[in-house]
Write a structure and sequence with these properties.
The protein is of the alpha/beta class. It has a single domain, classed as 3-Layer(aba) Sandwich (Rossmann fold). The protein has an 8-stranded mixed sheet, with helices on both faces.
Length: 232
Amino acid sequence: MPEITIPASDGSGSFSAYVSMPRQAQAGVVVMIQEIFGVNHAMRALSDWVADMGFIAISPDLFWRIQPGIQLTDSTEAEWKRAFDLMNAFDQAKGIEDLKATLAHARTMPGGNGRAGTMGFCLGGRLAFMMATQSDADVNVSYYGVGIEGLLGDAGRISAPLLLHIAERDRFVPAEAREKILAGLAGKPEVAVHVYPGVDHAFARMGGHSWDGRAATIANGRSAELLARVLG
């Protein structure tokens, strides 16, 4: 089942989600949260990778209220401009509602074990942090989330394991913002933050402009270990 349809919780319609299934049954579910490029080839490949690890992966189309089915790349200036326009038009509160609806659906999926978490990248990394403070997800993983330093006031609401991967040279997360994140989350036993030296934003997007195999392998290993521990 490569795609499913999930009804929006506000009754405004429904949205599609890409699904990748593991070989084994009774698996935990990972809600994969898109970058600003939509549920494109990269997000589908990441979802397939999560399924290869033994989890059900489900990646909802969060831009559906603007334009359904967006699939951009980071290859051209025009696509970058379109991606930023989409991000600026995106209603994050509605996005969280859609992620909560996806999470609820994930917990009832055939072949699932009732446990579900999130894993987000870029914009999705920010939303994964927001899910850690606003939802009952069992685990949340954030890759190079943008603007998290402005969300730290809600950090006291984090109760489930949260893993943050931060690029040292992230063009969208300056050093000052990174230090605020590290200080704001220090001492929280449920939160782990890792900074990857010398790499830029999107270092874990295979084939992307900033791909770094070493940092991605280390980060992905940490993600896999946490997901296996929490989701089974």
